[in-house]
Amino acid sequence: MEDMLTIAWEVLEVARNLLLKQPETLGTGTYEADSLAEIAAFTYQRLGDLQTLNEEYDSAVADYLACVEQMKRAKMFRSDIATIYFSIGHTETLRNKYEDALRYFNAAAPIFETLVREETGEAAAAPAAGASKPKGKGKGKAKAKALAGTGPRLPSTPQPGDNPKAKQFRAKLKETYDLMDSCVAEMEAPPQQAAGGGMAAAAAAV
Fold it and tell me: How many CA atoms are closer than 13 Å to the CA of 71, on its beta-carbon side?
């Protein structure tokens, strides 16, 4: 398994280097099914996935952020971008950086909420990142709650009348909400109890 991951990583590195030799064709703002920006985005995404599996979390986050940049340049679907924000948040939970994880989950959740509303016509929920950031540092309850947002959430389980896309977006929304709640629980826990065991179990289930 380790040898296969190494080979996959090397192949993706070659693809990335080839793409970066063609900067004039990246970021044109024109969406084409086979555009180099789109190919670069998926290359960075897979590199991020592999770096996460190899526990190279700094490199994983850097690759995911590069993926988001290329996705925006290629004008790819919002659901694709939200999925990468979710992946970054998930990666941050694996190294117990819950505050950073919440920020990326907060970037993903409103997009998934909007996509659900567009498919179903549901009333808008308050953005997950709508709460103001409290002053000071530390893992206090106020800071955790503020980072997670205090507004109402959309139902994240299938609802009557949902079409297939709505069900898909609700499933991603549920994963996002669940990990946000787990991050808050870790940040609120007393230091001697916040060993990350519960969070690791939740992240492993994703």
Answer: 20
